[in-house]
Amino acid sequence: MRYLKGGVAAPGTGVRSRPRAVLPALCLTQITSWGIVYYAFPVLNPAITADTGWSAGATTAAFSAALVVSAVAGIYVGRVLDHRGPRTVMTAGSVLGALSLLVIAAAPNLAVFFAGWLLAGAAMAAIFYQPAFAALTRWWAPDHIRALTIVTLAGGLASTVFAPLTAILADHMSWRATYAVLAGILAILTIPAHTLALKAPWPPAPPSPPHLTGGHEQVVRSRAFRMLAVTFALSAFAMYAVVIGLVPLLIERGYTTTQAAWALGLGGAGQTLGRTLYATLSRHLGVTARTVTLIALGALTTAALATVAGPYALLIAVSVLAGVIRGNLTLLQATSVTDRWGTTHYGRLSGLLGAPAHAAAALAPFAGAVMAGPLGGYPALFALLAALSITAAVTALGAHTRHRKQ
């Protein structure tokens, strides 16, 4: 392995450099960013509604609006990433994230609270997985799956670290003071990390594959791209509706809130386990077969949750298996562009591809809760979500491209 100025040469290439500090820095910033900007909200929301009198529906709508903004802003962020790299984007995102939390903490009314979350949504687009994945894909390709796996494993610890920390802070101070402290932590840990660790020269984009003579416009217009966008949107809607609906499903079946929470938490552990298996899966299955298989397995676990009422140990096992599938789906989406169309326009294409899925994920919790009543309960909702996942697996067959291993 050759050592180059700015980092270590990529195995098998002898040319492209890998800045040594990038991987540990992104592990730290993903844990911190997800933990503070995303996972602190469900912990603090009961205190927010109790203190302000705002309804839980209104405050959660503000949070969901942030996720929608993140999906839309991600398209622009992807374009910037392709041309300028992640340093400016992620540093600015860290600054904006800290400022948005201060706005939320100081919000005198619901309108300002919404405004703070809209700013936070723009920050999410610049500091969550998409820019981190773009950085690792450009610096680490063709061995990027290992780097992506490491960062997503770290990101999986975000709730483990920051949900308890947020709860501890909230036990000793108001929700406003807690958000102010978390804003400080976000700024201290992520602004220097993004500024210093991502300063290496941004490698030039590799040439487009020979079959892509029209650049990224050709890809976006292709049937495969459109079908893949539909696939991921349907899959994301089903997946996030299942995650949010698992606790009420189990409570509806007579289990305690604690038992339901354990099932959800152990499913999260399964998600971390699943991410360790993706590299092996990618070596044995082509990209289309991998996509169809994972989404179909997700449908099966959702159907099992819809039909299996017990015993509790069996439900735990199904929840863990569902988590394993979710963990693989995260990496499937992270590698979907590279596997089909190379790394040349990764940032732009991943932003466009991910926007519908992120919007669907933002709307899924509300839509699932609304549909559960008319459908007659959460088992029926889960049966519908399983059917939706099967539909996604079928549309994935239309995302077949002819020029890479399928």
Describe this structure in words.
By secondary structure, the protein is an all-alpha fold. It has 16 helices and 3 strands. It has helices spanning 22-38, 40-52, 56-84, 86-106, 110-127, 129-140, 144-155, 158-172, 175-197, 215-221, 223-252, 257-284, 287-307, 312-341, 346-375, 378-396; strands spanning 3-4, 7-9, 17-18. It has a 3-stranded antiparallel sheet, with no helix packed on it. It is globular. The chain starts with a strand and ends in a 10-residue tail after the last helix.
Q: Which sheet architecture does the biggest sheet show?
A: 3 strands, antiparallel
Q: Based on helices, strands and strand pairing, what is the structural class?
A: mainly alpha
Major β-sheet strand ordering: 1-2-3
Taking all Cα atoms into account, the compactness measure Rg is 21 Å
| Amino- and carboxy-terminal Cα gap | 31 Å
Strand content: under 5%
| Helical content class | over 70%
Uncertain segments:
1-15
Order of helices and strands: EEEHHHHHHHHHHHHHHHH
The count of β-strands is 3
Given the structure, what is the number of helices? Answer: 16
Q: What would the principal axes of the Cα set say about the shape?
A: globular
Average pLDDT works out at: 85
